[in-house]
Structure prediction request, 962 residues.
Amino acid sequence: MEEIRIGVYICWCGTNISRMVDVEDVARELSEMPGVVISKDYKYMCSDPGQALIIKDIKEHKLNRVVVSACSPRIHELTFRKALENAGLNPYMFQMANIREQVSWVHDDREKATKKAKALVAAAINRVKWHESLDKRTVSINPSTLVIGGGIAGITAALELADTGSPVYLIEKTTELGGNMAKIDLTFPYLNSARQIIQEKIERTEHHPNIHIFKNTVVDEIFGYIGNFNSIIGQNGSEIDLKFGNIVVATGLKPFDPSGLENYGYGKFPDVITSLEFEKKLLSGNILTNEGKDPENVVIIHCVGSRNRSEHEYCSRTCCMTALKYANQLRSAIPDANIYQAYADMRAFGKGCEELYTSTSRKGIMFLMFDQQNDLPVIKKAEPGDSCNMLIEMNEKLSGEKIEIPADMVILMVGLEAHEDAKKISHTVGISLDGNSFFMEKHPKLDPVATTTSGVYVVGNCQAPKDIPDTITQAKAATARIMGTIKQGEVEVEVITAVVNEDICCGCQTCIQVCPYTAITYDVVKGVSVVNEAICKGCGTCGSACPTGAIRSRHFTDNQILSQIKGLLSKSLELKEV
Amino acid sequence: MIQRVNTDLKKDLLKLGVKDWNECFHCGNCTAICPLSENELLFPRKVIRQAQMGLETSLQANVSPWMCYYCGECSDTCPRDANPGELMMSLRRYLTSIYDWTGLSRLFYTNKYMEFAAIIGLAIIVILLFAIWGPPLDPSLTSEGGVKINSFAPIKWIELGDWSMAVVVGALLISNILHMFYKVIIKPGVKIPLTTYITELWKLPTHFATQAKFRKCDAKGKFYWGAHWLMMTGYTVMFTMIVVFLPEFQVEKVNDWWHWQRLLGYYSTFGLLFGLIFVIIGRIKQNNQIFKFSHLSDWLFIIMLFLTTISGIMLHLFRVGGMPYATYYTYIAHIAILIPMICIEVPFSKWSHLAYRPFAIYFAALKKEAKELEYKTNLSPEAA
Prediction:
């Protein structure tokens, strides 16, 4: 075995670390540990000169292991691995000790903090001795894509991909493409026809040579991993085996059902209708009450099922502007009508939306504010002598008065919520749900399109409620990502994975049950578990669950972990004496 | 109390001259900038809300429009150009029409033909009275060289006319104030102890005489309060002289110029002319918020007062100059303008504000005291 030659670098991080940790003392003391060839401190290790220092030392001192003691590996582990690679070393011959977030930022005793820093660096030095070279692995990419959901999100993704020449399988649960967008009359904020936009896209999708549409179909099971998925779907009694490299989940959301809200009397009063029912009236061209009359007093109630602790806490994001759209349409259709917007907060954040609010508010529309948490409006039947059918009782916040509004039509702006089968879909494609049963993106800010499962993307409302422009943006972002992998032809996969020692594996299948990525299968012939390394994320759950020790997690081997602990304890015993 | 939204109220207000209906989105900048808005009675935002929403009962019980003297700071500050000051002015018109139980106020405000017909009708009646029952015009002068005005218009008849007009107009005005009292205090159920009515009573004459609140609007070098006060005192002096001291005022003898009768006359002429010219120029130029919007009733009031003043000056000059016929005809014209002005404007139109403003301040003070009393009662151990 080659001689172990470790380089140790202690970062000052300006004054971030050096203010609380005696970095020079740490460097000096640890230079005495066995295997350490050089030990240095430097102002900013992550800077270009800092990295150059490491590269120079690797070459000059023939280092084969490197420890950097600086910030969190979440921030700069990749930076330093890259430096090792540039110096000709395998990037995994590297270990980082976090003495900023875990030491200098959280302690106020310089002496103790320095001791703790020494313990952490000693642990890293002990661990890096056991590191092994790991090699990059790639898998090939099947250029086909599976799109689940035929609404505006799915159609947009399908068309984008198909236009580049890649085959697309578009799965739609219902008998028609178009989703929710096909059910609405005009779009906000510019009041263009939704029908026209979606109809053109549907027609193009249906006649596109690269798009294979499966209507009335659901996907029950998907096998494989990025680049090499497959699924068997039932179609007209026969089974079709589809192979595809990426998956776009675009299953959308459904409108909230207000039947459970007694105060709004939905189902009890025929003229209390939901927003989608009002869209139907708009599409049919006449806005009449149940009795067939033009409504004189229309009340539009916002946030039905949204932003309330007892229903859904989130904002459905589309209803405020839709309600303004209705006010405009009502104003044009019935110029003399009294139109009321009963709202909690007016949210007009998108492009052109504040302008829509401003222009609508100048059309004689009355905005009434209520308390969405504690004091919802109540719809009551009017007394026989009244000119209208219903009275809406509410505490109006801007006047501070308890009022009742006569109404002969009430539109409930129902929010959006997850489909009942969201959980099932999440299992099928192997992604997670958040608390509201929306599909979870990989990172809420930095990667709101991908998921934690490579090759699976979430677009449109199924990820969170959003309007049409946001949906289309997300759909196109996902296609760009997919096109990237298709163009490369192959994709790098995680190298820190689990491996099964088939000689020791007893075939108990405990690992299969605990794996969160369904990366392990059971080889019936050999009677052992098999890890699919393209799916495995190296989380280590199987390794810790394995009763025989047959599963070994690369880069997290027993020797690595145990010697790391030994290193930590060797210094922390001293820490206790202080 | 639940208030039913009156969907027709906005149509009503539009008829009474409200300019813009939709702009206000209740940011409250107007209330923040208003030099007169106080914690106890915040305005104008809240009353705008009541008007917009059709909360008739609250609006009619709200005296804040009378607290506003239209300095225009709110309209200048408004981010949506909703003209809150203008709305306050229009609401004063609305409240005047509500307080007036006869319905004539509403008729005159909403129907200009009826208003003109009433003014011209009254003027014709005055002219006819002089033409039919008036004594023959005597061109001869008294031994001292004065016009024989008292034989043309005998003091006792003119006094009788003055007093009967004062009684009728006063009765109408007082009944309207009682109606206002009902709308503001009784209907909303404000409980006020009798002592409070008495202890707060001093506010009525004080605010009538000084219009002290108006002074707060005079920031930035404006002179609204001064011009208005001169006009008001000028008018009050003249009105008192012709109603209470007519025998001393309507004299045939030409007094020396330093005689109190002439000095008071000159003061009120100056006050009226100064104030009127200030307002007329302002309303024509429209370069200040206070003068930007003029309803027909605003113009009619100013024009009639101006014509009364001018005919009064001419009457004086002709009399002093010893010109009998000119004096007699001007006298008829003067009365023919004066009578409709007082009979229409005081109980039914713009001039009623001379009573409503001090009473609004009085009622607001009563309400404030009632609120504090209620607060104290709720705090006391017996209440707990």
Chain A touches chain B at residues 296-297, 338, 361-368, 391, 393, 396, 398-406 (CB under 8 Å). The mean pLDDT of chain A is 93. Chain A has 15 helices and 30 strands. The radius of gyration of chain A is 31 Å.
